Recover the amino acids of this structure.
């Protein structure tokens, strides 16, 4: 319970931080609307009594007073309706501000979280729940608290009015609504537990939907005729969650109908009592109308009150999902003693590095040690699954090793601010990103902090040989690339790879890491780039990972990685003389090309 109250406080704080002005306006207009119905009922009572008196006396003399009462009734009715509409607008404005704020928190957290989180299905479950609840759940807490206060205040006013008729009517108003609150609380737990358990299944449903509607799977879906197969899988997954949810709601609806029947009985008793008092002359028609309307309004207010209590209880269950995600620990951070780093001066040293992915029994990297001098070109080669891409992520400090260390100029990466350190690196990953943005913007993303980047963007594009293609597009460097938006131009995979390489060069970082940078390039482009590779990377320390051994032979030193361990190190000529793993792989590849 203490944790729930803590989450309430944190949620209300988030709402206030996102839009203090709109939050204040929401509270103010809710308080105003608490008094208007009572005022309207009182005016209607006076109006009916005046009309009854005028009819009984057959005297038109009271007509001016009646007209003024009618005008006041209309004014209060208008203010009540207008305040309702204005309240909806205020809540919408506040909701938009809060959604923006909450998405900002989720996106900021997601960007900061360790890359290793993306290897866990539990992370995606937490993200899915947080994304589902974060945009609106804190606002729901505020609205329910405001509604609770407004309904309680209005209920007190109506109950006080009904007590003037008979104290039993006020008690009856409260008692008949008790089953409703129990019902909401009971099924709030049931629905929450159900939805939490169904998160993996809901993500599976979303995945099947993506397979049927997404761009990447569209070709194989059609080629292999998989549309009906995945449609069946989607329907099975979708209906599994929905049918169970409907069964829970069906049971709740049955009990709600019994609760409504009890309330109808209370209305019946109240109407009989009021009718009897009116016929006996104890109540005027105006007072009768006032008490009937008051009882009706009281039923509405107590329903709103109990609904707000139940909704707050539901919120207390679901709000934890948001803070569960926001409170995930970020382990990739600078550890004391924290040191500044602004440039790469001499050497990167890898010492006894080991790393195992969560859930794996065998290590991906096992006691790897090597060094890279400033200005040196290092190539890392090995069969698939040798750990080459994992080693790149460790060098970028996207992962922290299980043991061992990586040092830049004698300082352990763990003692450096990750963002500051990564500014010294530029990387083309094997699974590089395809940004559906302008061609020039695609390159500029390598360093968005650079001012007046136009000349450097073109220079980077010229180095990779994509400048002429971009220049020939309808809007040149402003042309949107990809196929998601209108007025865009799709590129071939090789052209995308040139764009990614241009982005890496534009970053102008002292350390350049290329993970399979030519996998999608045609032979002519690959030859053009690697024939002047030294010129392109001039002044940079480079790490090249490639399966194409004709390219890695350009390196100053080649490191052979097998099953997460270094088995050979040397120049191309030295490794060829050793006739080890590198020699076997090189001769097989070059022999295949010769044939």
């Amino acid at each position: 319970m203490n944790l729930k109250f803590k989450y309430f406080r944190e949620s209300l704080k988030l709402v206030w931080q996102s839009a203090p002005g709109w939050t204040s306006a929401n509270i103010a207009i809710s308080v105003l609307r608490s008094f208007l119905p009572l005022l309207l009922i009182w005016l209607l009572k006076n109006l009916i009594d005046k009309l009854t008196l005028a009819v009984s006396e057959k005297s038109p003399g009271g007509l001016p007073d009646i007209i003024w009462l009618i005008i006041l009734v209309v004014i209060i009715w208008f203010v009540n309706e207008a305040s309702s509409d204005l309240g909806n607008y205020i809540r919408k404005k506040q909701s938009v501000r809060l959604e923006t704020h909450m998405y900002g928190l989720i996106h900021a957290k997601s960007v900061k979280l360790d890359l290793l989180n993306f290897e866990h299905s539990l992370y995606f479950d937490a993200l899915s729940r947080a994304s589902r609840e974060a945009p609106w759940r804190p606002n729901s807490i505020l609205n329910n608290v405001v509604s609770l206060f407004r309904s309680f205040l209005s209920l007190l006013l109506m109950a006080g009015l009904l007590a003037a008729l008979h104290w039993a009517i006020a008690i009856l108003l409260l008692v008949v609504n008790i089953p409703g609150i129990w019902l909401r609380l009971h099924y709030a737990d049931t629905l929450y537990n159900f939805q939490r358990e169904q998160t993996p299944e809901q993500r599976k449903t979303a995945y099947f939907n993506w397979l049927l509607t997404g761009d990447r799977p569209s070709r194989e879906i059609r080629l292999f005729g998989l549309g009906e197969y995945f449609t069946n899988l989607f329907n099975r997954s979708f209906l599994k969650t929905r049918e169970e949810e409907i069964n829970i709601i069906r049971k709740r609806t049955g009990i709600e109908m019994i609760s409504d029947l009890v309330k109808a009985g209370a209305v019946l008793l109240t109407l009989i009592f009021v009718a009897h008092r009116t016929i006996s002359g104890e109540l005027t028609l105006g007072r009768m109308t006032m008490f009937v309307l008051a009882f009706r309004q009281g039923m509405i207010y107590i329903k709103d009150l109990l609904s707000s209590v139940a909704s707050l209880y539901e919120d207390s269950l679901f709000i934890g999902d948001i803070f569960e995600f926001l409170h995930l620990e970020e382990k990739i951070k600078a550890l004391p003693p924290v040191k500044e780093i602004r440039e790469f001066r001499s050497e990167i040293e890898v010492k006894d590095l080991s790393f195992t992915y969560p859930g794996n029994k065998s290590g991906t990297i096992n006691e790897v040690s090597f060094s890279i001098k400033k200005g040196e070109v290092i190539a890392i080669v090995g069969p698939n699954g040798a750990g080459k891409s994992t080693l790149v992520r460790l060098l970028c400090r996207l992962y922290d090793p299980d043991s061992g260390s990586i040092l830049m100029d004698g300082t352990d990466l763990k003692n450096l601010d990750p963002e500051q350190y990564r500014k010294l690196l530029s990387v083309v990953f094997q699974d590089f990103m395809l940004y559906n943005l302008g061609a020039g913007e695609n390159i500029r993303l390598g360093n968005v902090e650079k001012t007046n980047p136009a000349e450097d963007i073109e220079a980077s594009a010229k180095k990779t040989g994509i400048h002429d293609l971009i220049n020939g597009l309808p809007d040149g460097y402003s042309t949107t690339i990809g196929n998601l938006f209108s007025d865009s131009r799709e590129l071939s995979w090789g052209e995308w790879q040139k764009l990614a390489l241009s982005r890496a060069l534009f970053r102008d970082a002292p350390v350049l890491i290329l993970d399979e940078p030519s996998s999608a390039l045609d032979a002519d482009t690959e030859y053009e780039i690697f024939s002047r590779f030294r010129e392109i990377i001039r002044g940079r320390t480079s790490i090249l990972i490639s399966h194409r051994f004709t390219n890695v032979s350009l390196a100053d030193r080649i490191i052979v990685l097998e099953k997460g361990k270094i088995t050979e190190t040397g120049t191309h000529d030295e490794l060829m003389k050793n006739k080890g793993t590198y020699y076997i792989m090189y001769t097989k590849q070059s022999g295949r090309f010769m044939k």
Residues 227-279 form the longest helix (53 residues). The CA atoms of residues 494 and 521 lie 5 Å apart. The two ends are 74 Å apart (CA to CA). The chain has three domains: 2-326, 341-424+509-595, 433-503.
